[in-house]
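Lecture notes, part 5. Sequence design as translation. It can be helpful to think of inverse folding as translation between two languages: the language of shapes and the language of residues. The source text, in structure tokens, appears below.
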């Protein structure tokens, strides 16, 4: 089987996807017009041309500006449905979507407006596309822990509607330790916990995410490669990393895809997965990430199957939900 068809046929879970980062400029303009919201760019073309990032912050500034177009329940529904259609076409069977409530509540959009729209899309994706999903609420780490606690208080009356919490936004200068108390509370409430760490931040932030936040997965985590003890621990404990190769190149974490350390992490026995992060901004959905990474790093078919298997194993679904996907994955692997 040709590589792209093989990668599409593999059942995959996407575990690192910011739904606000799937807002394509065309939809951004359509929503901004519908809602009477001004955007900082004159056209779709100018918007795309502005996507020349030098680091995480240069991206986040545009990402938050674009998110201002999202106001109504239907906007969040449309946004997530557009993502689910792309995901289904890429062979994604399950997606765990990050959303950033503080980006919206700070503009006067109610938490329940965001949640209602996303949740309706999750139900529709299951019914119409056969794609399963979960929602993970991310706290913005450039804001205070008190602000995170206030967000959790808003979420608490609807807690069963989310599956976990994460930590995103500007990493440098905002270590996981800043959120130790709110994460402890989230764990008490029975939520799954993940955090971005080691994208731009040092290996020490990954240690903190593991030891202080007690996360079940590390989002990005690529800077673990600078610390042999940390690499050994991640491998031994089977902690999944949700790696986003095209994102890392766009945000200058690696100069080019062939310099990416994903193969090194994988060959050290770490449970690596491939994800798209903010596909509308970084130039590719999950299949494109698999394909370009496979080619740039010359990953073997066995390694690609292992990465897809890792994504299913690292997802927060029950064994009963996972079993048919794993069976299909092994069948595709055997037939290739
Ligand atoms: N890193 C941190 N915060 C984010 C990202 C990311 O890659 N995408 C959206 N928010
Ligand atoms: Zn991310």
């Amino acid at each position: 089987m040709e590589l792209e068809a093989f990668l599409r046929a593999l059942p995959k879970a996407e575990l690192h996807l910011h739904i606000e980062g799937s807002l394509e400029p065309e939809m951004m303009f359509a929503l901004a017009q519908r809602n009477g919201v001004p955007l900082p760019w004159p056209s779709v073309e100018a918007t795309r041309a502005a996507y020349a990032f030098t680091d995480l912050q240069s991206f986040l500034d545009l990402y938050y500006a674009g998110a201002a177009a999202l106001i109504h329940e239907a906007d969040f529904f449309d946004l997530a449905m557009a993502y689910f259609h792309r995901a289904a076409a890429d062979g994604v069977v399950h997606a765990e979507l990050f959303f950033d409530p503080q980006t919206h509540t700070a503009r006067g959009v109610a938490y329940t407006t965001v949640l209602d729209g996303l949740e309706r899309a999750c139900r529709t994706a299951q019914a119409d596309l056969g794609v399963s999903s979960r929602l993970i609420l991310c706290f913005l780490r450039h804001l205070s822990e008190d602000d995170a606690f206030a967000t959790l208080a808003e979420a608490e009356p609807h807690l069963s509607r989310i599956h976990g919490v994460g930590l995103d936004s500007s990493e440098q200068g905002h270590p996981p330790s800043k959120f130790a108390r709110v994460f402890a509370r989230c764990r008490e409430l029975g939520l799954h916990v993940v955090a971005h760490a080691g994208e731009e931040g040092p290996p020490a932030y990954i240690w903190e995410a593991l030891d202080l936040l007690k996360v079940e997965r590390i989002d990005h985590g690529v800077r673990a490669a600078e610390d042999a003890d940390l690499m050994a621990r991640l491998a031994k404990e089977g902690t999944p990393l949700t790696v986003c190769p095209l994102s890392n190149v766009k945000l200058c974490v690696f100069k080019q895809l062939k310099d990416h350390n994903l193969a090194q992490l994988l060959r050290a026995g770490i449970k690596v997965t491939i994800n798209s992060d903010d596909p509308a901004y970084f130039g590719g959905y999950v299949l494109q990430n698999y394909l370009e990474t496979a080619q740039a790093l010359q990953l073997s078919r066995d390694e690609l199957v292992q990465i897809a298997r890792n994504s299913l194993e690292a997802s927060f679904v029950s064994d009963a939900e996972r079993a048919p996907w794993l069976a299909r994955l092994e069948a595709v692997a055997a037939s290739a």
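The translated text above is only one of many valid answers, since several sequences can fold into similar shapes. Residues 88 and 236 are 33 Å apart (CA to CA).
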